[in-house]
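Task: sequence design from structure.
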């Protein structure tokens, strides 16, 4: 059999002032043709999962493009038309394929297009018609629209947050599209969207309501006809009408089964919605709590400046407080500040640097701070994920400088990437186990890699574009009322 695969992913924070242009994708991942297989084969990514199944079957695979950019502001039309166009062109040139597998995100907002993924699937359907199977794997933080559901043969969402199951979901999708193409199953779908948006930091699957919901959704005695259930948490930092929670259930030819299951899961979420609320911890309190913990390292998550959700990655409020409280054994990954990296290179390793650090992108993440520190090292920023999430995949922070500011080791980067794996510290020459406190710029993904080594985990309520308090965001276009924004 013959399959076409592609990947095009971006999680768009519409409150960000940083546009996501073509260069933003090139700076992270932009693989074309055979490069897709060469780089992603054997990795625990969605495309890696596709390839695991299709290559084991000995099937023919057509590679279009695999590209993603760090979450930020609106995707430019040039970027969308270029990358999306490559996928559509690859499909048009292979009309004899048995089906199409795509790894998308589900929260891409393009200039003038709220539903980037739905629009892309519409362009694809114009080429292939309604019959060719098209199975799409989406991030858990997706905006699910009727158009997206109608244009896909099946949508399969991540089941785990942190997203340690990307490869698994890719394998599931590849196995499913084979069954669809052979006529072994006929997916029918039910979509239910209760008027709510779970707060990002409380809908992880390490514990709590979201974990319980997945246990119910995947229970061993669920109706046999169910092919797939996805509990899409939604992405709360996008001011667009489809933003919100969504339950999507596919059954084999039985709409009643699909609808009953989707309605039950949606009701469970709505009845217990208050469990998605959170209690904030101020930055000073977070550091005091960390210092009181026996053992090390204590991980403090700067959740509001998470570049994995569109944060600028250059807030320094936690660093400021670490210095204020006299902490001398801590490490922070990372502060995005290419200018400071250049200054550190000019000063040289082993020498002192006095500079203004951070808060250069916008006014949402606090103020810059004047610091003096020793340039401990200059690093090319390349590393390989070794934790449970994206294991085997390579990444780059761009050229980095490690500054020693009174015993606080700060990794200053030239690219924005959330710190979700201890390997980011190790590759920079910083042993995370030697630190009393580790500060990470991440909302939830860090838990997969840091839980095994952390003496404790504390969420700090610093300022930023991925803050858990949604009342501070000026929503104008979302559908109202929406819990908990409208309590």
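Answer:
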């Amino acid at each position: 059999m013959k399959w076409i695969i592609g990947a095009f992913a971006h999680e768009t924070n519409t409150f960000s002032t940083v546009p996501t242009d073509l260069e933003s994708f090139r700076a992270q991942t932009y693989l074309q043709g055979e490069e897709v297989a060469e780089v992603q084969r054997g990795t625990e990514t969605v495309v890696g999962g596709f390839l695991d199944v299709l290559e084991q079957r000995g099937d023919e695979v057509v590679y279009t493009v695999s590209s993603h950019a760090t979450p930020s502001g609106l995707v430019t039309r040039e970027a969308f038309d270029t990358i999306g166009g490559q996928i559509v062109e690859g499909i048009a040139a292979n009309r004899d394929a048995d089906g199409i597998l795509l790894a998308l995100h589900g929260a891409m907002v393009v200039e003038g297009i709220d539903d980037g993924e739905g629009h892309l699937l519409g362009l694809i359907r114009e080429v292939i018609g309604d019959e060719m199977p098209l199975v799409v794997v989406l991030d858990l933080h997706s905006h699910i629209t009727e158009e997206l559901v109608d244009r896909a043969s099946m949508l399969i969402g991540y089941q785990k947050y942190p997203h340690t199951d990307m490869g698994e979901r890719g394998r599931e999708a590849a196995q499913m599209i084979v069954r669809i193409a052979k006529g072994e199953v006929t997916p029918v779908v039910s979509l239910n969207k209760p008027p709510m948006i779970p707060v990002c930091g409380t809908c992880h699957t390490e514990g709590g309501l979201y974990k319980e919901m997945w246990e119910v959704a995947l229970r061993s005695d669920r109706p046999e006809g169910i092919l797939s259930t996805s509990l899409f948490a939604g992405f709360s930092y996008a001011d667009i009408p489809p933003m919100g929670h969504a339950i999507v259930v596919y059954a084999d030819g039985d709409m009643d089964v699909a609808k009953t299951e989707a309605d039950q899961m949606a009701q469970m979420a709505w009845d217990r919605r208050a469990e998605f609320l959170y209690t904030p911890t101020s930055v000073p309190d977070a550091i005091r709590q960390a210092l009181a913990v026996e053992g090390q390292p204590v991980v403090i998550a700067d959740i509001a400046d998470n570049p994995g959700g569109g944060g600028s990655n250059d807030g320094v409020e936690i660093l400021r407080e670490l210095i204020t409280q006299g902490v001398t054994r801590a490490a922070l990954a990372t502060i995005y500040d290419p200018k400071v990296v250049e200054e550190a290179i000019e000063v040289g390793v082993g020498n002192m640097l006095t500079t203004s650090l951070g808060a250069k992108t916008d006014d949402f993440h606090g103020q810059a701070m004047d610091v003096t520190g020793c340039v401990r090292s200059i690093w090319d920023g390349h590393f390989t994920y070794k934790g449970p999430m994206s294991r085997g995949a390579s990444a780059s922070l761009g050229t980095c400088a490690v500054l020693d500011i009174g015993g606080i080791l700060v990794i200053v980067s030239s690219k924005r990437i959330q710190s979700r794996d201890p390997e980011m510290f190790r590759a920079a020459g910083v042993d995370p186990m030697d630190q009393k406190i580790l500060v990470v710029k991440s909302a939830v993904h860090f838990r997969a890699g840091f839980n095994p080594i952390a003496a404790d985990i504390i969420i700090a309520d610093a300022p930023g574009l991925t803050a858990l308090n949604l009342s501070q965001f000026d929503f104008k276009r979302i559908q109202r009322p929406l819990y908990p924004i409208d309590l």
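The mean pLDDT is 96.
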